[in-house]
Amino acid sequence: MDRMKINKRMVAIITVCTFALTGCGSININYNIPEAAASGQESTYDGFFDNDEINKLIDANYKEVEQNGWAELRIPEEVHGIGQDSFSDNALDAAHKLIDSGYEAYIIGGAIRDLVMGTETMDFDITTNASNDQISEVFENARFHAIPSGLEFAFVEYPGEVIDVASCVNIPAEFHGVAGVPDFDPNEMYSDNFVADSFERDLTINALYYDVKTGELVDYHGGLHDIREGIIQTMVDPAIALDADPRISIRGMRFKARYGFELSDGFDKAMRENVGVYVTKPGPGSNSFNVPKFFDAGYAYNSYEVLDDYGAFDVLFAPVDDICQTDDYRAYMEAATKQMDAWEAEGDEIGKDLYIAVILWPEFEGMTKEEVEKSSAGVLAKQNETISINEEDMDDYIDLFVIESQLEQKMTYDKAASLVLQNEFEDAYDLLVIRSLTDDSLEDEVDYWTEMRNEVLYEDSDIAA
Fold this sequence. Notes:
The chain is of the alpha+beta class. It has two domains: about 5-30 and about 290-465, cca-adding enzyme, domain 2 (Orthogonal Bundle), CATH 1.10.3090; about 45-235, Beta Polymerase, domain 2. The chain has helices at about 10-15, 15-20, 35-40, 45-50, 50-70, 75-80, 90-100, 110-115, 130-140, 195-200, 225-230, 240-245, 245-260, 265-280, 285-290, 300-310, 315, 325-345, 355-360, 370-385, 390-405, 415-420, 425-435, 445-460, 460-465; strands spanning about 75, 105-110, 125-130, 145, 150-160, 160-165, 210, 215-220, 230, 260-265. Strands 1-8-7-2-3-6-5-4 form an eight-stranded mixed β-sheet. Strands 9-10 form a two-stranded parallel sheet. Strand 7 (about 210) and strand 8 (about 215-220) form a beta hairpin. The chain starts with 7 loop residues before the first helix and ends with a helix.
């Protein structure tokens, strides 16, 4: 928590009583629209697809994709209008170093998706037909990192930015012999072409490329069509794709929440039939990286709705599986996620893992400090089975829950001031505010701790020191 941003919370606190009286609908979060529109950013989402020439190219290509499994679409820069000034100078420098060395270099994935949709992007990754050894020759400062599958990619450092540079990977071995997939050697991890690399991408909307040398947008799987139509789907049959990489389940739901897109019929069916397997198979470590993105980027309410709809919420957050379908818990989570989205919209940072505390707190509701101290480690250990929590964060959560259990108690000024200065107080305070949205009895406590934190942190320098 950035304590310099504390005063921004006062704006939210002013609305707490009104919110509690008027119900969860008092904070409006747009749904079923692209992120740029939801966040108030200027968007070219509609404009990109208002171009008749682009639509004709997309439609013709999509027919081939449906018939053959894939088809290459190249849209010239003079047609798509996305210039190289849309990319960071460092990404372009890295790409041109590869091109000047005789290789191809494409900027890929989320950056291209975001540019097409008119949303801001800061993450420029490069894929090249150069091998890892050749990448090392081009970039003397390249640092290679391996992922669990054994694939390696390079970090190329620039002042203030790190560019990911990866060699083209091969088609997943699980796709060998699947209709519409080109023939390939399933024993090879890497390839020398972008068609093979595109099959390794998780979703069609992320399998988009920008050829730095020619300025063309490149689409092999109808990703542009799917963005235009608001569809989330995989390159091959979703059941095959999900078995090969179950992390796609998490990413598919997240992009549905983020953009309001719909999963394709096959993707939706596979998820509803096996969601419990798909969201747990990647393991708690993978989930600890991917799941927070549902809740810390301004679309937490949409995320909660999507996760609940697919039956993934009670699987990922097993400690509350006995209460998460109750009306009280649903009302609490609706209010909580809308409030977190409101804070994000105001530009106010929230604790990076506050969402876990928000989701799990109802397990401790009504407990004394001693009871919370006794039970919190067990609750967190159960949570650790699906979303890993490292030892340091485990201790922080316990401290947070213990602090939270004291915020409704009467105490001396000195004890209250000491509590405000504890590391986890800010997240505990945010949690108290969130709880008050559906519990009118906490309004006095919110007022008290709001005044106390202002006094201790800004006015009483002796205590704050």
